[in-house]
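Bench log, entry 3. Co-assembly request; chain sequences pasted below exactly as received.
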Amino acid sequence: MPVITLTINDELVSARSGQSILEACRDHDIQLPTLCYLDGLSARGGCRLCLVDVAGSPRLLPACTTEALENMVVTTHNEKIDRYRRMILELTFAERNHTCAVCVSNENCELQSLAAELGMDHVRYDYLNPELNLDTSHERYGVDHNRCLLCLRCVRVCDEVEGAHTWDVMGRGVESRVITDLNRPWGDSESCTDCGKCVEVCPTGALFDKGSSVAEMKKEASFLRRILDGREKRQWQR
Amino acid sequence: MTAPTAPSTKINDDTGHDLKFQLIDKALKKCQFQQDALIEVLHTAQETFGHLDEEILDYVSLQLKLPPSWVYGVATFYNFFTLDPQGEHVCVVCLGTACYVKGAGEIVTRLEEEFSIKAGATTEDGNLSLLTARCLGNCSLAPMLTLDGEVHGKQTAESVIAALKAKTTQKAALEEEKV
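Structure output for the full assembly:
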């Protein structure tokens, strides 16, 4: 496979041609914050947290959906980018009702740990406080739209890995919601296989195992790489 | 099974097929059941029934072999599709930038007061649906709106209310004539 060379943060690094900037960064242990990206799922470029500066581009580009190219000069961290990332997190917090203190995923939440990591300690925007419901009609799992970021990992894992495509998104803009089937209660879904992949990949407490209380919901998304390698390479690593 | 006498939503033909869907079937056949014709099929359904209910969406998803959540997502994304039955008259006010600057927001507020409904809803008597759209692509006519599909440009709250009143009285007059 052809190898290309590019500059990331003033260092020359090599990448395979066709790789995204994000993949190249992760191969070289350069940390980039992400929420919608998950190894094993298609890249979406929705959360905008992996925005990087590419020399010659007038605007910041999402590293997950931008292909790494020969001689590219990429900056992953500087004052402006870090400020934007904090701003994006603030907007994410303001959009729904992320009340960590009573959340099943408290202390095990990707949004929460990113906020801590990036130093986002307060929200300067007005909270939208939308009135959202909780669907616990499924026998084993629940969905709490108050905690949803619309990262759409659940939609992608259900479509791309499980193949059921039970989840999708309805509406537009601030009205968007993840739905199962024809916006019916999850428990009534005929297409859902109850596999629980969506719950495991969800970065927050939006999808959870029923019966879990505050801070009890621990998730593990690494199963995805294992089953995908099994499917594609016939190798099951543990 | 007995042969149907008149097409209605509940009568099935001899293949057990709901006659309600004849026009949708025609659209499905025309596009040879291709999945990327989903919007076109929903378009036909919307124009035939005035709205898309669960039964229609379920039928389309079944016929095109698409997941129901996908079809529902598309039906709720586009402004043209509605899931609730519409009123006798439909007024869509453009709230695009040009129209908004020219006072479309006030028109909506005035209409909401006049007919005591919120934008996006239908009056209790089923006479009027008041809807808004992001941009109807007619910015030179700002503020513009459509009344039962007809384009009305350079409107004021007064002119819209007058036009809507004319529509409803027209209907009342017609009914009186019938009596």
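Residues 19-77 of chain B form one domain. The first strand of chain B starts at residue 89 and ends at 94.
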